[in-house]
Amino acid sequence: MDSILIQILNGLDKGGAYALIALGLTLVFGTLGVVNFAHGALFMLGAFVSVTVRNILTISKKVKDESITFFDAYKETPYLEIWWGDTGAMIIDYAVPISILVAIPVMLLIGLMMERGLIQYFYKRGDADQILVTFGLAIIIQEIIKANYGANPIPTPAPDIVAGSASIGAALGLGESLVYPWWRLIYLFFSVTIIGAVFAFLKYTTFGMVVRAGMHDRETVGLLGVNVEKAFTIVFGIAAVVAGLAGTMYTPILPPDYHMGMDFLVLSFVVVVVGGMGSLGGAVAAGFLLGILQSFASMNEVKSIIPGIDQIIIYLVAVIVLLVRPRGLMGKD
Amino acid sequence: MDSINPSSKRKDSLGLIIFIIVVLTAPLWGKLIGAGYPDLLQKFAIFGLFAIGYNILFGLTGYLSFGHAVFLGIGSYTAAWSFKLLSMNPVPAVIFAILLSGIFAAAIGYVSLRRTGIYFAILTLAFAQMGYNLAYSVLTPITNGETGLRVLRDDPRVLDNAFGVQIEGSPVGNFFGIEMTGYSGYYFCAIMLILGFYLAMRVFRSPFGMKLVAIKSNQTRMEYTGYNPRPYLLTAFVISGMYAGLAGALMVIVDPLAGAERMQWTASGEVVLMTILGGVGTLIGPLIGAVVIKYFENIFSAINDSSLQATFNFLPEWLENIVVTIVSPFVGDGWHMTLGVLFMIVIIFMPGGIMEAISRLTAWIKRMRE
Fold first, then answer.
1. Contact yes or no for B265 and A132 at CB 8 A
2. Do B111 and A277 touch (CB under 8 A)?
3. A contacts of B341 (beta carbons < 8 Å)
4. What is the mean pLDDT of each run of 10 residues along chain B (370 residues)?
5. What are the C-alpha distances in Å from B18 to residues A47, A219, B21, B56, B187?
6. Alpha carbons B135 and B146: distance in angstroms, whole number
7. What b/e string do you get for A15-45 counting C-beta neighbours within 10 Å, with b at 16 or more?
8. If I label A236, which of A64, A292, B85, B305 is the partner at 20 to 30 A Cα–Cα?
9. Measured between CA atoms, how close is B334 to chain A, in angstroms?
10. Cβ atoms A115, A27 nearer than 8 A
11. CATH of domain B9-278
């Protein structure tokens, strides 16, 4: 029972990342009709916003180490600690949460630039062209990051206060052995919050209504005098922010490297296909579902029966879904 | 689309003869452009084959596959195992690689072709990633994981032992006594390339090819005329998968080592770029695209910062530093960056590729004359 619960939890946080990326993909596809192969790169950029913020906060200078008296020793001390002492150290500790505040405007800007600068010229072109041009863009973004940050994963720790594990077992009365890292729990709540916010935004605001109407019938909404184009540009920006935030928050779980974007993108595409292309609810549901499935498949008990199943379970599910129910779990025909 | 119309047989035979002459004399004219060494020429032929085959699917039917590198990998592993178990002779390696990649292509194609457009691209990409992940994890006994599959001296090689063929030194492909290294390796690839090109030409001119084009231009209308497009699509998919398998086998034949990295999604993307750069749906375009990309990859990867400095030495020092900083991310290890930029430029500005550029140029010259 405990091990099952822990696998579900394990799957939920990864599923949260899939769901967030898939949500953005579906939004962009539903509104703009563009398949964005650079969406994974946005996720990766979000993660590197967090790395950059940390790098900036820890800009250091060499200070004489007073604790060593035999010879002159120097150690790197961040300016923040020199200026503000413990407060400074705390700010550095909270680098990841702080980067969220930075990531929102940065990712919005990147998203808008991408849409205005490139994607808007590709609305009228075929699927293949859209896929290929965003694929090229993804390669370029990836290589820029690789050139500036190197090829190795960069560890970005969560704040100390949530570095340990939560004893959920004790809280739920299921035994002490059931523990779960705080940060993963936070990530799960974070992703659910973001997803809820996006859905509420689409459902309860006038802007959201325009977007939903536009997804349904773009031409008619345009004829009614609504500037659909502008609304869709903003949607692209929102999708970029969602992907970026998913990446920023994911850094303590997985140290970011330059190819994490593509790794997640392929899986997220599968998630979108399984959920049903164009269905927001389907994307979210399939994201969590596949995350959980993957985590069950990576249990040793399962792996000993079918070796390697953890590597391919998601693709297998996608193949089965496409064969049995081609429009996906919640997609409309 | 003039290349697809059934043109006169004489024109085709002439084109084929020119093609054969150009391919067989490649070591001579290669020297003029600084590509006159066998390693690079082998790459031209191998990736040319890969792109020509890919074009039969993408160029004719318009179905964008993002996972063709997986067949390259399957071909490579099959050829390596044929070297290990049967014989160092490339003939069984080629035959088995084509057969096995064809079988896998049939299976993957059967599933993927149930959807069109974006779904198809994503499905093929998912299959390729699946193959890549498996090659690195569970299939390590077959693929030897990250180290790559090597052909060793003391492998069983049943056929070679039966016929008493001895291997001296490190094992290399051996075509009835001719070692598959250097120019003899190139000529083996070249003959395969000529055969592959001839076959592609026949496919282009055949009624089957016409049906593939019909799928590209209007699938619904084709269905209305009473054709079921799926069998034709699957056949095209399998043929292009076989070409990729052959290319993968040739890689192992000229250099007996198979690694999973050639199944990565970047490799699948590269063949798409070759096809588009040369000219989608044209006969010779994909080969030109492959040659151009491999040629520039070879040049760009070899450049490092010091050789850059030497090149721009004639500039004033401040300008030299600026130019070197701008150019250096694109060369050496940064070749992928150049590839990405090239990708975008080609798709944004010349979706027709080099062949369209040439035909526009000739049309322009004609107009100038009149």
1. no
2. no
3. 136, 140
4. 56 89 88 84 94 94 91 94 89 94 95 84 86 85 84 80 74 80 90 94 91 88 88 95 96 88 86 91 92 88 76 78 78 80 86 87 89
5. 54, 53, 5, 21, 17
6. 9
7. bbbbbbbbbbbbbbbbbbbbbbbbbbbbbbb
8. A292
9. 7
10. no
11. 1.10.3470
pLDDT tens digits along B194-205 = 999 999 999 999
Tokens matching residue B228:
């079921």
* Interface predicted TM-score (ipTM) of this complex, two decimals: 0.81
- Chain B residue at shortest CA distance from A312: B130
Indicate the burial class of B59 (C-beta count within 10 angstroms; 0-12, 13-18, 19 or more).
buried
Domain boundaries, chain B: 9-278, 303-370
Distance between CA atoms of residues A156 and A250, nearest Å:
10
Which residues of chain A approach chain B closer than 8 Å at the C-beta?
35, 121, 125, 127-129, 131-133, 135-140, 142-144, 147, 262, 266, 269-270, 272-273, 277, 307-308, 311-312, 315, 318-319, 322-323, 326
> Between chains, do A135 and B343 touch, taking CB under 8 Å as contact?
yes
* A180 beta partners: A166
pLDDT tens, position by position, A261-310: 888 888 888 888 888 877 888 899 999 999 998 888 888 777 777 777 77
Please report the domains of chain A, with CATH numbers, ordered by start residue. Answer: 2-54+94-324 (1.10.3470)
